[in-house]
Design brief:
By secondary structure, this protein is mostly helical. 73% of the residues lie in helices and 2% in strands. It has three domains: 54 residues, Multidrug-efflux Transporter Regulator, Chain: A, Domain 2; 57 residues, no CATH class; 92 residues. The chain contains 15 helices and three strands. Strands 1-3-2 form a three-stranded antiparallel beta sheet. The radius of gyration is 23 Å and the shape is globular. The N and C termini lie far apart (47 Å).
């Protein structure tokens, strides 16, 4: 067991900060001495290390606590999430450096083109590789053969309507490069399930708040949690454009309202849309 002072010396975190983490329930001591001093074991140190990883991304403490206390995420799930965040941060730094280099060379040109034929081929190959055997069998049965399925995919993806959708995806991700990477490297199925469960729980929290002013801080905190989970699920650094469109759909799409209202209650879908819109405004 280690005292607060010893933990502070090891990590560089102030004693006052550790006391505050205890007060808000983010990092509670493993036990207290007879004199009432906080004591921490190795498990508490492991939790503190995970907290410090999340703090590298300037996440609010409430969001960190919500993630770490999520029963659907175990230690490995949290570490995988943190690793993805670190990789994206590294890639973002590399892109910024590359952009500066281009500006210095007089090549300051942003690329927001939609996917061309060769890139659609890459997406197809990735799609096929990530399908289960059962999914492959289903599509082959539907189209008659793997090659027929492939031709149908390429034809559909090359259509004007599909290209407009791809352009929207590029807009959401912020660049063609990041959108392409997300298309080719979908999030692990286990993590997707965990994120979807989390979003369902967030939606229920918002539904329970119906009638409360959407500018209320309690409502905004719940939408903030939605924002955080959406970033992990869709592998985006900024989901505001996507969420704004979702908010608009929640308020205007009657089919969507009918389906979701049947789950969360009459009028909840429109209210959730208003809450999301207020958050990003």
């Amino acid at each position: 067991m280690m005292t607060v002072k010893e933990i502070s010396e090891i990590t560089g975190i102030s004693v006052r900060t550790l006391h505050y983490y205890d007060e808000i329930g983010l990092l509670t001591p493993s036990q207290k001495s007879a004199a009432g001093y906080r004591l921490y074991d190795d498990k508490a140190l492991e939790r503190l290390r995970q907290i410090l990883f999340f703090r590298e991304f300037d996440l609010p403490l409430k969001e960190i606590r919500a993630v770490m206390d999520d029963p659907s995420l175990d230690r490995n799930g949290i570490l995988q999430m943190q690793r993805r965040m670190l990789v994206r941060k590294k890639e973002r730094m590399e892109r910024l450096i590359a952009s500066i280099d281009k500006i210095l060379k007089g090549e300051d040109k942003m690329d927001f083109e939609v996917f061309d034929r060769s890139e659609i081929e890459e997406i197809w190959n990735s799609l096929y590789e990530n399908c289960s055997e059962a999914q492959r069998a289903l599509f082959v049965s539907r189209y008659g053969s793997k090659e027929a399925w492939r031709r149908q995919f390429l034809e559909s993806a090359s259509s004007e309507e599909a290209q407009k959708s791809y352009a929207k995806i590029v807009e959401w991700y912020g660049s063609k490069e990041k959108a392409m990477e997300a298309q080719k490297n979908p999030t692990d199925a286990g993590l997707v399930t965990a994120y979807q469960k989390r979003i369902t729980a967030v939606m229920q929290k918002l539904a329970d708040k119906m009638g409360t002013d959407v500018n209320d801080m309690g409502v905004k905190e719940i939408v903030g949690e939605y924002d955080f989970v959406a970033k992990q699920l869709y592998q985006m650094d900024d989901v505001s454009a996507l969420m704004k469109e979702l908010a608009a759909a929640y308020q205007t799409n009657e089919t969507m309202q009918k389906v979701q209202d049947s789950i969360y209650g009459d009028g909840t879908t429109a209210y959730i849309g208003q809450a999301i819109q207020a958050f990003y405004s």
